[in-house]
Specification:
Blueprint lengths: L8 H35 L14 H27 L3 H7 L1
């Protein structure tokens, strides 16, 4: 629809990349928060002999969220490029 209204290829690619980044970043942060809460809950329980309670390592969390965000952006670029390359008439026909 945006293509038919005169949006440039660059603006469409930027919108898809930004959307992919925000969605994966927010979902990664929510997942890390839930995992941190679960680990805190499990840390209060007495585990089997010889097992340490689970711990959230900040560097591992940062790497996990970063790789999740990168994967989301890369996965979003294919449909973004496909949408950006459509002719305006084709964009309206497919809408």
């Amino acid at each position: 629809m945006r293509k038919a209204l005169g949006a440039t290829n660059r603006s469409i690619l930027f919108q898809f990349a930004l959307e992919g980044t925000l969605l994966t970043l927010v979902s990664g942060l929510i997942g890390m928060a839930l995992a941190g809460g679960l680990m805190a809950l499990l840390g209060t329980q007495e585990g089997p002999q010889g097992f340490d309670p689970p711990k959230l390592v900040p560097m591992s969390a940062i790497i996990a969220i970063g790789s999740l965000t990168l994967a989301g952006v890369v996965a979003g670029l294919y449909p973004a490029r496909k949408a950006a390359m459509l002719q305006p008439v084709e964009a309206l026909r497919q809408e």
